[in-house]
Structure formats: C-alpha cells, structure tokens
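pasting for ref
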Amino acid sequence: MRRSTSTVRRACALGTTAALIALTTGLGIATATAAHAEGAETPAPTQSASADPSQTTAPTDPAPTDEQADPAPDGTEPADTTTPPTDDESPSTDDTAPAGSTAPTTTTPTTAKPSATSTDAPVTPLAADPTVTVSGDTKVGSQLTADTTGFDEDGSFRYVWTEYDAGPTPTTIAKTKTFTVDQAEAGKQLVVTVTGDLPGGGTETVTSDPSAVITQDPVFIGADGKPVAEGTDIDDPLYLDTTAGDAFSYTFRAQGSPAPTYELDWFYGDEEDSADSIVESKSQADSIAVGSEFEEDDDYTVEDQLPEGITFDPTTGELSGTATLASWYDFAVTATSGNVSTTQYVELTVDHAAAFGITAFTIDEKSITARDKRIWLIQPDGSIYTVDLSTDEDGFPEELTLTPTGRPTVAQGGTLVVSGSPVDRFGNDATDFDDEGNPTFVPTVTSDVATDVVAPYEENGAEGQGVFGVTFPHASIHTLTVASGALQPLSFAVDVRPTTPTVAVVTPTTAKGQLAYTGSDATGALPWALALVLAGAGLIGVRTLRRRHAQR
C-alpha cells in the first residue's frame, strides 16, 4: 500500500516538475530540475527558483502520512495541508526521508501554478498586421485613395498604383496616396502597393485587393477622339447636311465603359406651339390641320424622323444612306454606358440637287384674297395636283386637301396668276437667291393662243418675284409654257370656260388695283407666296409632305 502511494507521488512529482520546466522555459525564467533515481524509493530533495523574489519555497513536510490524498484525477497536485514555517524557521532543503518512507512534496500549490508567478511583468500586445485598401468612386474623373492601417502614421510611405493582373512588370500609374483616374484606366481594375514604417521599427510592404472595374460615363467624341460639344444642348443641336441623291454617312461615336450602346431618340426642334410632322401618304396629308399641334399616332415611329432613304445602325452608331427629299429633319441619338446615358440632338438638312426642270403653280386671281382657294401644281413630268386650301382671317393656312389630278380652270375673261420654280431631278425646289435675297430663277410665260394677254403680275407683294398674270379673252383649251434658260420647259393645258353674257376683254392695266378684297389684308398675308411655298415644299415627289408653320 505504501509502496503504491510512493509510486503515485513520484509520478506526480515528475509531472509537476516537467510542467514547470516547460512553462518557465517559454517565459525565459531559469528553474531547477528535479532528479529522481530510477527505482529508488526515497526521492532526492527538490529545489525550486521562484520568479518572484518575495516568494519562498514551502517547507518539507516533516510528518507525511500514508493517509495523504492522492493527486486529483486530472493530474493536479492535491492541496497541501502542512503548516507553513514561522519567521524563525527556514525550510530544510537537504533532509532525506528515511528508507522505505514516502518523500514529502517540496513545492507548494502556488509554485505548481506558474500563472501566479509569471504575470507580474507587463506584456506588450502585438501590433495589427498592416493593410491597405482602395477607396473612392471607381470611375474616370474621380479620385482614388490608398487607406492604410497598422503602419506608423508618422513614418514614411511609398505608394505604387498599377493595373491589376497586368503581368510581371506592370506599368506604374501613380506614386501618390491619392490620384485622379484617367480615361486610360477605363475598364480596368487597379491595385496599390504600400511600403511603410512599422510602429516597432522596420518596414513592411503590402498590396491592396483589386478595385472594382473602372467605369466611364459616356461622352460623344469626334473622329479625332476629342469630345464633341455640339448637340449636347437641346437648344444648340448638331447640324449635319447632305445633298439629295448623294450618299451620306455620319458615325456617332462615344467613349464610355462599359462600351456604349446607341439608340435613335425623339427630338422636335420647333417652337412649342408649332406643328412638325412627316407624313408618308396622301391620306395622312389630307387629315392634317395645318398649324395645329402635331400629335403622334401609332404608326409614327422614331425612325420616321429620318429622311426617306437614311437609316441608323444602333450597333455601330452610323447614320447612312441616300436621301431624295430636300428638307430638314430633327432627331436625337442616345449613348448609354451601364446605367448612364447622354444624348446628342441633331438637325439634318437635305439640300436640293442641281436644277433639272421647272414646277409651275397657278391660281385664279379672284381667289387670292378669298378664305378658300384652289391651287394647281404642275410637275416637270406634266402631272397635276390640285390643292384646296382654307385660311384664317389673317391669311394663314388652316386646312388643306391634296388631290393628285385636275386641270387649271378659269372663266373666260378671267386671269390666272402663274409662276414657276426650278426643281432638281427629284422634284425638290431648287430656287437660289442672290445676296439681296432675290431669286436667281427668272421664268418666262407664253401662251399658244395669240389673243391671250401675258404680263408681269405685281399685285399683293408679287413685284419682282417672277410672277405673271395671263388673261384669257376666248373660251377654249389654252396651253401655257413656263421656261427659264437651259432648264427643260414645262407646258400645261388650261380650261377656259365660256361665260354668258360674254365678258369684255380685260387687260392687265385695267386689272391693277381693282381686286375684290374680303376685309383681310391680302398684301400682308401674301397668299400667292404661301401657295408658292406649298408648291415648292409640299408636293414634290408626293411621297412626303413636311410642314413647318412658325410661330406668328
């Protein structure tokens, strides 16, 4: 029984000593080791050096008994119940237990617990590992910042910004804590490497995680790569022009990241209370009330803003084709990168081609000042269109009806007002003007009936405009011809209908100043000029009638 207890205690003492050695060695404190003779029943006295000078070694138990408690199952030393020595006593370190007796322990429980003797010296906590992160709006034109932690903030730093995953020798973008992102970085990810001083001395180098992909808001540019200012303001559109019959191409370009996509968009450049429309058929033209607000119908699409023959490719941003209708066209193009868009407003002018022939217009003189008028338009190929026009009390258009047939008609003794304008091979009005605003086209009008009286018509503001009055003394079919220079002459028939009783011949001189007024200011309204405008602008080719009625 006693032998068994001694063996347990020896094992316990060895375990306690080994634990002390391992712990104190780790703290850098020297300790004494206990030596035990293999197989000896009496252990050698043990010495222990305390890390705390004020702490003394517990005295040797002078009277151990077999009834002392065994070590706890977890291997810890049981509580020592011996009486500590008085001030006059000192523990014996060289007493040897009698043979065959159990050696008392030489250490106290507090010595076996190193935490009570190893925490008096303060321990400096380890500094946080240095890090760097990228902050800021990752888009072109914004500022990025390298935010650091764990460095000596009063120490020195070295910054190197590079493109992420750019190979073994990436190009340095910047060497400062902050920098403004340039367009060259669009679509890339960036990293920053920082070398800095540590709080405890020395330096360390760390690299940030890659930034988000650099984006760029879209901006329209020219073929030279420079930003285009024209058209970005709705009041200052981009002006483009082409000539009827000529191949046309213009590419809308935009910088942005992600790569911009393009879309044709709506734009009306007219005043708010004006009408601006493109119609594609006679039935649509018949239904339009001139001067009213334009109302989009279900059949009118954004592509209808373009001239016939011109198309827009949203994949490439190219506007191309061949237009034949001379006019001006408003539309817009929008470029989008990510969720950001920008718009360019455009006005495309299609100029007439070289003059080819003549279009004539004629109206009964008596209807010039009337609210309801009938105008005949004669095309270079001889086809005739009849326009019935209603005007308001000031002479401005209210409603019109176009009929692709008819023949100029006048009563015997009446007068037709006749004029003409040059047209290109597509039927566009090709009138040009000199520096003083006078038309360079000078027509002549002749009749195949010798008794017809042809003279310049200078009433109602037509003076100097190349307008003629033709008076018909006899009822029959008369043929009038309008010609000018080398242009192909235009001839058309006039139905002069008899009256009962027969009216006297009226000469141009007696007709002057004797027009029947209806109360409106015919001179101010210039109805004949309005009809001429309709002739030149509206019924050319008959494919499309584009009207613009400016604010009065």
